[in-house]
Design brief:
The chain is of the alpha+beta class and 693 residues long. Helix content is 34%, strand content 19%. It has 25 helices and 26 strands. The longest helix has 25 residues, at 430-454. Residues 10-141 form the BREX system Lon protease-like BrxL N-terminal domain.
């Protein structure tokens, strides 16, 4: 086990399970992850291999004997009849039969109906009246000659969820983990290998948990297929309900006027709408209106008296086009059904999670480490819904007073959710808060910027904040930095008209918004010019290459010195090779350029490092580029810069290591071939003009 796994088992013994065990026991059982982990938690919540092996066999045996496969329903029914009583694992729902004044259950897989249920059971588990709930039930068979009486009877029924957790113990154990360790533990808990994700990508994954910890939180995630958008809502928690197809009726979601019974929002912490996108889909206007009122006011009404509920809404769907296409031709909400592509509905969304930043899920992304039994974590998150952390960021930062109350509330709810998930016991620093605050502001800004494109009556908003020093810090979305030529298109004009506008302003290499952008912005980027400046690049951004960053500053240079102490691992040395390739491609055929690297030795495998660096020297033979390298002996330490004999100094906080490390796998990816298709790490670059010597 890793050091983190050891620590997890030390402080959360009995509440964690090795995450790869789910696949080991699932077989062909079509059950949510939380059902399987509930069973694994009973028998495999340990780090002892012998106990794990024994527990796996026990869980497999339980599933084999008691989980009901639809194809074997007849056999199980016969078993219940012959034995008189039998325990089954099935999805069960209950309804009231008004003719007999009794409650009757339906077993989804077992295929039996009108199973008698006593009132006490229904009062103890009211969710059974709303939708199917996975349960472990003892079913009896008692034949009666009265055809009106069903022979099936439930003796006991237990929804699959942990009854009680020690929240104070959870907070105390959290204090034993650093922030990074805790984030990695949460990533492993939802089934992912933390090493396969960058910091921002981890936070985006954890952002999907916010609806579970925040009451009445509305989030939307639109992006490509296969990124796991609906997984959290269908597999993660017994307190979330995923509506497949994204379609639901008013009685089912809110209240049934016929009997006054409240719908899904009254019983579930999260109601998620899967496959929500689709321009061809239609929605009931009355449903949309009630949803808008509920999302804004936490209440709804179909009669005289308004009713309140606490369920959060999550909307997930696939986009039809990539981000630049949407920004140039429509907006980032273009995939929504027409009835929901409405400014009033969109304005009620607290956050827009950029699904295009999340990679398609692959097998190597799943963890084999330890994480919380998802049902245990689900109960903790549910307990946290009672807390309110929204004012904690005010201890360190002040959000711009120019944003509206609705914008401010959205940012605070997102911040509260993040803090509950990552810092449930407090203790966060100003640096910790700022990282989360930037993401919370960005998530609401993405909503508001698109609203301005959809409805020009919405004013532009200054999404910024100030720290204790009084310095104003403006927030941008990643796509705003990456595609400024499209992001600032005015909503009232056709893209072609804007392209021809006389007030056009060209894109610069930084992706920062030009001052004249309020007029219009050209979609034709100008040739990059070498200018002094300091620029910050957001994590997960794409579209940046060494050519865009460095080429204008290397023009005419005959000697280039790269100082980077961390050209050590294979992918870092590959970055160095790509830098050299860029120099070869940019220089005139007849020119000679010397490229010298100053780096540090890889103490783990310095011989391999030498061989790889020497291979770059050999590869440059006959190209007009002379590549040399040396280990640092001057004591420059951690400095990372590029200096040319033409007077330019380029300072990089990460050196050449600006791209997220690739995952090793078979097959081809554009990121392997084209730097513009790789996700960036967060980094800055400073261009300084020096006196030539």
């Amino acid at each position: 086990m890793s050091a983190l796994d050891d620590k997890i088992n030390e402080h959360f013994a009995g509440y964690v399970v090795r995450k790869d065990l789910v696949k080991a026991v699932k077989g062909n059982a079509i059950v949510p992850t939380y059902v399987l982990e509930y069973l694994l938690g009973q028998y495999c919540a340990t780090d002892d291999e012998a106990s794990i092996d024994s527990g796996i066999d026990t869980v497999k045996d339980i599933l084999k004997k008691h989980y009901v496969h639809r194809s074997e329903a007849g056999l199980i029914q016969s078993t219940i009849k012959e034995k008189g009583r039998y325990k089954v694992i099935d999805q069960i729902s209950v309804s009231l039969n008004e003719k007999t004044d009794s409650y009757e259950a339906v077993f989804d897989n077992l295929g039996i109906k009108k199973v008698a249920v006593d009132s006490g059971t229904v009062k103890a588990h009211p969710k059974l009246l709303v939708t199917g709930v996975w349960c472990i039930a003892d079913v009896q068979y008692e034949y009666s000659e009265d055809s009106r009486i069903s022979p099936w009877v439930i003796e006991t029924i237990k929804p699959i969820q942990i009854a009680k957790v020690d929240y104070e113990g959870y907070k105390q154990a959290r204090a034993q983990f650093s922030k990074d360790e805790w984030i990695d533990l949460l990533m492993q808990s939802i089934g992912f290998n933390p090493e396969a994700f960058g910091r921002r990508s981890k936070l985006l994954q954890l952002m999907r948990l916010i609806p579970f910890v925040e009451r009445n939180y509305n989030i939307i995630e639109l992006g490509p297929k296969g990124t796991g958008k609906s997984h959290i809502y269908s597999e993660f928690s017994p307190h979330g309900q995923l509506i497949s197809g994204g379609e639901v009726t008013i009685p089912k979601l809110f209240v049934n006027n016929a009997n006054g019974r409240i719908g899904l929002v009254g019983y579930w912490d999260v109601v998620a709408f899967d496959e929500f996108a689709g321009r061809e889909k239609t929605a009931n206007k009355a449903l949309v209106d009630i949803m808008k009122n509920y999302m804004a006011n936490k209440t709804f009404s179909r009669g005289i008296n308004p009713m309140g509920a606490e369920a959060s809404f999550a909307f997930v769907g696939n986009t039809d086009h990539n981000v630049p296409f949407m920004l140039k031709n429509s907006d980032l909400f273009e995939a929504l059904p027409p009835q929901f592509h409405d400014s009033a509905f969109i304005d009620r969304l607290h956050a827009y999670l950029p699904g295009w930043e999340i990679d398609v899920i692959r097998s190597e992304m799943f963890t084999t480490g330890y994480g919380f039994i998802v049902d245990y974590l689900a109960e903790i998150l549910r307990h946290l819904r009672q807390e309110d952390f929204s004012n904690r960021p005010d201890l360190h930062f002040k959000i711009s007073e120019k944003i509206s109350t609705r914008d401010r509330d959205a940012v605070y709810k997102t911040m509260s959710g993040f803090l509950k998930v990552i810092f449930p016991a407090g203790g966060e620093t100003a640096e910790d808060v700022e990282e989360l605050l930037q993401l919370a502001l960005e998530s609401r800004k993405r909503v508001k910027d698109q609203l301005f494109r959809i409805d020009a009556t919405y004013p532009e908003v200054d999404f910024s904040y100030t720290g204790s020093g009084g310095e104003k810090r403006r927030v941008q979305t990643v796509e705003e930095q990456e595609f400024p030529q499209f992001y600032y298109l005015k909503p009232a004009l056709d893209p072609k008209q804007q392209d021809e506008s006389s007030d056009a302003v060209d894109e610069d290499v930084t992706g920062d918004r030009p001052e004249a952008a309020n007029a219009s912005v050209s979609t034709r980027p100008a040739k990059p010019v070498a200018e002094e400046g300091h620029h910050v690049f957001a994590e997960n951004r794409k579209g940046i290459s060494y050519n865009k960053l460095f080429a204008p500053y290397l023009e005419g240079a005959s000697r280039i010195v790269v100082t980077d102490p961390y050209i050590r691992y294979f992918y870092q040395i590959k970055n160095m090779m790509e830098f050299v390739e860029m120099v070869i491609q940019r220089k005139a055929l007849e020119d000679q350029v010397a490229v010298h690297l100053v780096t540090g030795p890889d103490d783990g495998n310095v011989q391999k490092q030498r061989e790889l660096l020497d291979s770059i020297t050999e590869a440059c033979t006959g190209t007009g580029v002379d590549f040399t390298w040396a280990f640092d002996s001057s004591g420059t330490g951690h400095s990372r810069d590029i200096i040319t004999d033409t007077g330019w100094k380029i300072v990089l906080d990460r050196g050449l290591d600006i791209f997220q490390a690739p995952m090793r796998r078979d097959g081809f990816t554009l990121g392997d071939r084209l730097q513009e298709h790789r996700m960036l790490k967060n980094f800055y670059v400073t261009y300084v003009r020096q006196d030539q010597r």
